[in-house]
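Limitations
The structure tokens in this dataset are predictions for the assembled complex, not deposited experimental models. Users should treat interface geometry with appropriate caution, especially where small molecules or nucleic acid strands are included. An illustrative entry is reproduced here so readers can see what is and is not provided.
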Amino acid sequence: MTVAVSILPEQQLAALNAAYNQAVARKRLRLLLGVALFVAALLLAAIGAEVNLRTLFTYFGNFLSYFDRIFTLDSGQRVWTDVGEWLWGWRKWLKMLGETLLISYVGTLTGAVFAFALNFFAAENTSPGPWLRFVVRRLLEFARTVPGIVFALIFVIAFGLGPMAGVLAIAIHSTGTLGKLFSEIVENADMKPVEGIRSTGASWLSCMRFAIVPQVTAGYASYALLRFEINVREASVMGFVGAGGIGQELVVAIRKFYYSDVSAILLMIIVTVFIIDISTGWLRGRLFGKEART
Amino acid sequence: MTGPQEVDTAQIRARYPDVFDRPASARLATPAMIVAALGIFIYGLVDLDFSPSRFIAGLSQLGWISMMMIPPDPGSSLPIYLKALGETLSIALLGTTLAAIFALPVSLLAARNVVPNILRFPVRRFLDSIRGVDTLIWALVWINVVGLGPFAGVLAIAVSDFGAFGKLFSEAIEGADQKQVEGIRASGGSALHEIRFGLLPQVLPVIAGQVLYFIESNTRSATIIGIVGAGGIGLQLAEQIRVLEWQKVSFLILMILVAVAAIDFISSKLRFAIIGRRAVA
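Predicted assembly:
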């Protein structure tokens, strides 16, 4: 079966083709320029970061054999042939994982409370004064931009080694991120209830309590749960700088080349993160319906 | 003032039974959750050795530290710090690019509309487990492999972003319009043609936006991987904190803040330019 395809007359086609080629050529040139710029930036970066492909090629085998080694027991067998030996320290590690979860829980809750207290001052539509908004926003920005682990490094010196420094570091970082997200929810809230309540002569505080808070709690809780999820990961590395949690065990295992311990602890961290991800996702779905899940 | 008192509450109660006569379980749910949350919180405080005296002592120590931080002063090491900052930016740029290059083909294998479920599932779990491990942990692993220095940082960021990109890209691909792919198949294109001419033109702008966003957020990650010895400004920061040179510490923190703000600004402009132009064309 043949299909008839109508073809335009030769000269009409040539004109159209020329116009098409010109349009595409301009686009291609721009793309090419962009790519050239990007490659130049990459080369510059490669020099700056002391990238050495020879090192990579020489040692890439090490990377693969590293995984080979961390899945091998001292006896030379694969780890899964003797799970009891592999997870020999599970009691201690579970306790440390529990501590990690507690650090992120206490830190997230504290951060959420502070963010809750501050976000009304940072939101465009509810802030009592522009200067106050400016100050609170800069404060939140600072808490958000300085990485949590830097706070942890400083707090370890101020409050001493231990989980307390980790909790405070996570609390401050969460205050920054949640404060911004919370204030964005408030900015999207309906202002009519506020007008209604203000027209009865209510104070600013009652306006917030009875007009804004009922609208925004679901969103707040959803973001706080999401933050908790992120903070579990963050808390798992707080131990690297001595701020408590499973990170302490992990860093010792990595630095001292206790290979099978590394894989055992990593496995436990990954499983915990999975469980937390799934259960908070389920909880968010239960509490706020499907639309609040993302 | 007569208005509110004259409301017939009985009638209102009768009209809205589900507001006034909620079952006890529904009324108790919120307080119970709050009590449970507070209970865990207090247990956490006790278990993590919080004590008021330690807290106050720490706060006064912290106040003293902040006093020592003012004014920020790099001393004579400004050139070293600038070089370290450049290193950090390089780590972020290279790591993200590497991750994007490797993640693109893998993300095709994780997309529902490209491969069958049987292949998709293991690829997804693989990406999930990579993402479950923090960048700092990857940095420690790579230091064991290629030695201390920024190169380990590049590889750490590349690996951990590889997991994130794989997931994000595959979601972008799943969200793409199937009609163009079908059109290509109808005109006799192979599976590769379908991907090249049907999928990629749709998803590339989305992907470019995500990559730019990650370069931005990786500038933050790259500042901290130095803490474990993987190069960049974090190395300087951790060193100065350990030797209690607070003026240098505050200067370094300021440098990080300024750099992050600058990168934020540039990448949001670029992102807008890329996505805006494609959306119009």
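Some entries come with short summary sentences. For this one: Chain A has eleven helices and no strands.
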